[in-house]
């Protein structure tokens, strides 16, 4: 039974190689459903090494931040470093 190419969709594969480390993008597979995507990912990844965990997700379910967004731009406001906003406490223990 041949699969209809209209039912196939790309899935992104993420792999965790070591405990405590983040999952990393590994590859994209084209599959008809989640189970097929996981099976293809396991086949392709297992040939190279022994991962701890494999995640697959439809590419259509991933939302990426645009390169123009400033959400990850570091703030230049460093007023929290200034001592002027803090009240002074006596060092001798009296209040």
Automatic annotation (TrEMBL):
Compositional bias segments (type: Polar residues): 86-95
InterPro entries found in the cross-reference section: PaaB (IPR009359), PaaB_sf (IPR038693)
Family annotation (Gene3D superfamilies): Phenylacetic acid degradation B
Location of the region described as Disordered in the Swiss-Prot/TrEMBL record: 65-95
Pfam families: PaaB (PF06243)
Name recorded for this polypeptide: Phenylacetic acid degradation protein PaaB
Upper taxonomic lineage: Archaea, Methanobacteriati, Methanobacteriota, Stenosarchaea group, Halobacteria
């Amino acid at each position: 039974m041949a699969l209809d190419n209209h039912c196939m969709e790309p899935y992104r594969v993420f792999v965790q190689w070591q405990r405590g480390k983040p999952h990393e993008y590994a590859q994209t597979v084209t599959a008809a459903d989640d189970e097929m995507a996981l099976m293809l990912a396991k086949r392709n990844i297992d040939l190279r090494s022994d991962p701890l965990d494999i995640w697959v997700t439809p590419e259509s379910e991933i939302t990426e931040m645009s390169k123009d967004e400033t959400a990850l731009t570091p703030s230049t406001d460093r007023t929290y470093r200034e001592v002027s906003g803090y009240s002074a406490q006596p060092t001798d223990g009296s209040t």
